[in-house]
Design brief:
2 domains; eight-stranded mixed sheet; 10 helices; 17 strands; about 25% strand
Length: about 375
């Protein structure tokens, strides 16, 4: 989920860093490959995807490790897999059961399903002679949340976020923050981190019953849902493009270019939304954890197209899948970019309720994830309603 500043085009200092982390070496995934890690006993494939994805390094503009993890698994469930010029991973699956895709006749349509691979980050802007690293945000960040957090640069360099001496809490601004990696000097720090390197939150996935907590649920939970839906989908009358997009957190960039090239008839983003069930002075969002996935009605990037809403809600009701309706007063998703492709595309969002978005402790419910998978699979097996 992108913040309002990013949907308005103020993408800040994000984008491709000028150098990879370290002296001429390519960054490596933070997490060990899945084959080298032990899966907890009884863990489902869906939760296994989520565990691996949330622990893989992938800030905006540097999604390579996430993309390769996904690609290695979805190739078995697609007819064609490719990477476009911006770095989006596009897995195409042709119609099954004899229905041909079309733009004017027949039940089959060209559908784009998007989930973004990138996560929010900090980018190194200056390293002083004592080895402290000045940073700026890549995507929406709150300096209050950042204070004291552990972060990880590509290659596994761990640091702690701290700040200059403050006159008071109101004095805490992004420009006051720095990252301490324990370096003895500027030269020592520059052997591990260079200007332009990015750091992401350092936090393992933890589970308490049905609740799962990790960094990067936004939007690795969406990626996991789409991957699992691909694995379960059998027959479909549609030509479906499953797109794992780049740079959503800095302005919906990957979805914009991918949808222009694919030119879908209909588009659906799979992303998180804020749960409004925590203690607040007023109830702003009527979405709760554990009550099922949400069908977005509106956010700051789009008003969901009536056709897509009827498709999503009608499918959920026909299949007996519990769902919620969501009106988010801020933020946006890839649907906001996809709806503006070429002459316009009917678009909507299948949302995963999430507490504490854009923090290292984003929380989702396993039942909501399963419901999102079931709804997405059922949608892709049905014809679209008429406008």
């Amino acid at each position: 989920m992108v913040t309002d500043d990013m949907t308005a085009g103020r993408a800040g200092p994000g984008g491709e860093p000028p150098h990879p982390s370290g002296a001429g070496r390519e960054p490596q995934p933070v997490a060990a490959p899945a084959a080298e890690r032990e899966e907890p006993a009884g863990e489902s494939r869906l939760i296994g995807f989520l565990r691996d994805l949330t622990q893989t390094y992938g800030p905006s503009g540097r999604e390579e490790a996430v993309r390769e993890y996904i690609r290695a698994r979805v190739e078995a469930w697609a007819d064609e897999v490719r990477v476009d010029a911006l770095g989006n991973l596009i897995a195409r699956r042709g119609p099954r059961g004899g229905a041909a895709p079309g733009r004017g006749g027949g039940s089959g349509r060209r559908i784009m399903v998007a989930a973004h691979m990138d996560e929010i980050a900090l980018i190194a802007t200056h390293i002083d002679e004592k080895g402290f690293i000045r940073v700026e945000p890549v995507g929406g960040q709150d300096p209050v949340i950042l204070m004291g957090q552990r972060v990880e640069f590509a290659g596994g360099v761990i640091g702690v976020v701290s700040s200059e001496k403050l006159d008071g809490a109101r004095d805490l601004k992004m420009g006051k923050l720095f990252v301490d990696i324990g370096a003895a000097s500027g030269d020592d720090a520059r052997r591990s981190v260079r200007v332009g390197d990015m750091a992401v939150f350092h936090r393992p996935l933890e589970r308490a019953g049905r609740r799962l907590v990790a960094k990067a649920m936004d939007d690795r939970s969406g990626c996991a849902v789409v991957m699992e839906a691909m694995a379960r989908l059998e027959d479909s009358p549609h030509e479906v493009f499953f797109v794992f997009t780049v740079q959503e957190e800095v302005g919906l960039r990957g979805a914009r270019t991918a949808s222009f090239g694919i030119e879908p008839d209909v588009a659906v983003a799979v992303d998180i939304t804020l749960a409004g069930d925590t203690p607040e002075p007023e109830h702003r969002v009527a979405v709760e954890l554990g009550k099922g996935p949400a069908v977005k009605v509106k956010d700051n990037s789009q008003i969901a197209h009536p056709l897509v809403r009827r498709w999503m809600e009608g499918t959920a009701e026909a299949e007996g899948i519990t769902y919620q309706l969501e009106v988010l007063p801020f933020g946006g998703t890839d649907a906001g970019a996809m709806q503006l492709a070429r002459a316009g595309v009917p678009a909507g969002t299948l949302s995963i309720p999430t507490r504490y978005a854009h923090t290292p402790g984003e929380m989702v419910d396993a039942g909501d994830l399963e419901g999102a998978v079931r709804l997405l699979v059922a949608m892709l097996q049905r014809p679209l309603p008429e406008l």
